[in-house]
């Protein structure tokens, strides 16, 4: 039950097997999430969930922008295409 170092296949396929590069990528991604949450004065998923329940137009717009951002990240950074089964290279 020891810790096994592992780089995810999708990351390894696009950026190589370097654990250092993976750590830098994780740090930058975490910083961006924290910075965005601070700018928005709260959690993004909380804004989407509670705002959509209240039928706030800003929350619907934010949800659409999050989906577009996720699609751009998958398609152009991770080089993945989404299909009915999940994704393909």
Structure described in brief:
This protein has helices at residues 9-15, 19-39, 44-53, 57-77; strands at residues 81-83, 86-88. By secondary structure, the protein is mostly helical.
Q: Main β-sheet: number of strands, strand sense, barrel status?
A: 2 strands, antiparallel
From the helix content, strand content and strand pairing, which structural class follows? Answer: mainly alpha
Q: So how many helices?
A: 4
Say how many strands there are: 2
Radius of gyration: 16 Å
Helix content: 55-70%
Task: Give the total of domains.
Answer: 1
Spatial order of the strands forming the largest sheet: 1-2
Fold blueprint:
Layout: H1 9-15, H2 19-39, H3 44-53, H4 57-77, E1 81-83, E2 86-88
Antiparallel strand pairs: 1-2
Helix pairs in contact: 3-4
Descriptive account of the structure:
- There is one protein chain.
- By secondary structure, the chain is mainly α.
- The chain has one domain.
- The chain has four helices and two strands, in the order ααααββ.
- It has a two-stranded antiparallel ribbon with strand order 1-2.
- The longest helix has 21 residues, at 19-39.
- The mean pLDDT is 81.
Which key phrases capture this entry?
89 residues, mainly alpha, two-stranded antiparallel sheet, 7% strand, extended
């Amino acid at each position: 039950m020891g810790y096994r170092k592992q780089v995810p296949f999708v990351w390894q396929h696009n950026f190589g097997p370097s654990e250092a590069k993976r750590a830098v990528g994780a740090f930058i991604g975490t910083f961006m999430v924290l910075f965005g949450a601070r700018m928005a004065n709260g959690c993004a998923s909380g804004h989407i969930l509670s705002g959509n329940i209240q039928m706030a137009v800003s929350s619907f717009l934010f949800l659409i922008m999050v989906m577009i951002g996720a699609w751009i990240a998958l398609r152009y950074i991770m080089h993945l295409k989404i299909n009915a089964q999940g994704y393909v290279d």
